């Protein structure tokens, strides 16, 4: 890989925190959202992990992901209840202290009627030392950024609003462009030609995705590249292969 | 943890393999399905990872998960195209050879019209040495089990059929029972009482999940336990706490 290409790549890992996703009770909506969002702004999502509300699991996953990718995003576990242990776990992962943050406390003080900032609610102002706050326009209790890790709420509407607050601060790579070709035949009938096209155009990523459509097997071929000219040529080659297979 | 409890616990990790999930082009439907399925049969899903179609990533994730949990399940990357590298990656993870498996080849031979079992399609019969086949009633090309790892297709209808084939072979733990209590108030107003109830009933797992409902914040409290009596008592305590908070 040339230096230019390396410079173009900005990568990310996403950590979803919560027993409720692993038990099936809550169906995750944040992975698909973040995947689309990061692709749109030119950041490659490379790995996702879902872990339970257990400190050691969170610490291990955060430390592995932050060492490996440009950015890490997390969702879940920053509310006021006993099972919200994300902030403390992130502090442990970074080896920093954690306490009620005066900036976060001020936001919550302004939000709740006098006397209603209970000890439980004040838990939401616990922020690791050295972190920046992430604005929460929906329900006020902030997220935070420490190092390359961005800690967000799990409720999708809040997580999405926090992503909008974070996005302008991120460096982004040259955007991945993509085309797709639908083929009304099973992928096994295209596999050899598509494999050859992938070899012919090494600066593209070609994916072949089987679908079922009214009980018939069809295929979608997706061509991705950061270089528009390569994308065009490879897509044309795929279209030709599909036309030949159908002929 | 007592020996009895340890024996009751059967755990699982799930590995989703595929660039298309990480780019957002395909929205995963298998995580929620497997989470529900495993919970229903008494297996605890403890971790999920989504990795790209890159051999080293797959090998690393499989080896970490299989060392850690009773069972591992994977979905994706066992089709006929160049980007389907799961079977070879699993063989590499286990340090075994991989070749066209006569049992799998016979299944595909019987499925395709004479002469149509092309080299690309025959790729789907590549199975690591020592693995058992997993039946695929939908499109024939089998999955496989090696050690504690179960390798399934990514297409949801096929993955679900494969899970039904696998389920009778799994040992399952004492089933996790659960109740929930809906509360039409923000979770911060319940947090202290719920935290105390969690302490009072250590053999339960109590989760507090904020929701937005027409712009209002509401809460669902989920109580889980393997012991019915504990579940009942803790649920009653939660109901009392909610009633008091609403009074």
- Discrete helix count of chain A: 10
CATH H-tier superfamily of the largest domain in chain A: MoaB/Mog-like domain
Largest interface: A-B, 68 and 68 residues
How would you state the average pLDDT of chain A, rounded? Answer: 92
CATH class of the largest domain in chain A: Alpha Beta
Order of helices and strands of chain A: HEHHEHEHEHHEEEEHEHEEH
**Radius of gyration of CA atoms of chain A, rounded to a whole number:** 22 Å
Under the CATH scheme, the architecture of the largest domain in chain A is: 3-Layer(aba) Sandwich
Number of domains of chain A: 2
- Spatially, the strands of the biggest sheet of chain A line up as 2-1-3-8-7-6
First-residue to last-residue Cα separation of chain A: 38 Å
Number of strands of chain A: 11
Quaternary status: homodimer
The fraction of residues in strands of chain A falls at: 25-35%
The CATH topology label of the largest domain in chain A is: Molybdenum Cofactor Biosythetic Enzyme, Chain A
């Amino acid at each position: 890989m040339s230096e230019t290409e390396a410079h173009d790549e900005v990568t990310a890992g996403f950590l979803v925190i919560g027993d409720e996703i692993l038990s099936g009770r809550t169906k995750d909506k944040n992975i698909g959202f973040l995947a689309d969002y990061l692709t749109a702004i030119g950041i490659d999502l490379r790995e996702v992990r879902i872990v339970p509300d257990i400190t050691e699991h969170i610490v291990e996953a955060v430390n592995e992901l932050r060492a490996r990718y440009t950015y890490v995003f997390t969702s879940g576990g920053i509310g006021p209840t006993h099972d919200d242990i994300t902030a403390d776990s992130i502090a442990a992962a970074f080896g920093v202290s954690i306490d009620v943050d005066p900036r976060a406390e001020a936001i919550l003080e302004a939000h709740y009627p006098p006397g209603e900032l209970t000890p439980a609610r004040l838990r939401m102002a616990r922020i690791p030392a050295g972190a920046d706050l992430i604005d929460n326009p929906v329900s006020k209790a902030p997220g935070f950024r420490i190092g390359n890790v961005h800690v967000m709420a799990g409720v999708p509407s809040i997580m999405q609003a926090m992503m909008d607050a974070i996005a302008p601060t991120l460096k982004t790579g040259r955007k991945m462009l993509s085309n797709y070709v639908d083929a009304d035949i099973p992928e096994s009938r295209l596999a050899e030609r598509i494999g050859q096209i992938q070899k012919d155009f090494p600066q593209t990523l070609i994916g072949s995705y089987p679908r079922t459509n009214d009980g018939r097997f069809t295929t979608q071929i997706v061509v991705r590249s950061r270089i528009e000219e390569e994308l065009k040529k490879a897509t044309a080659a795929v279209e030709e292969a599909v036309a030949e297979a159908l002929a």
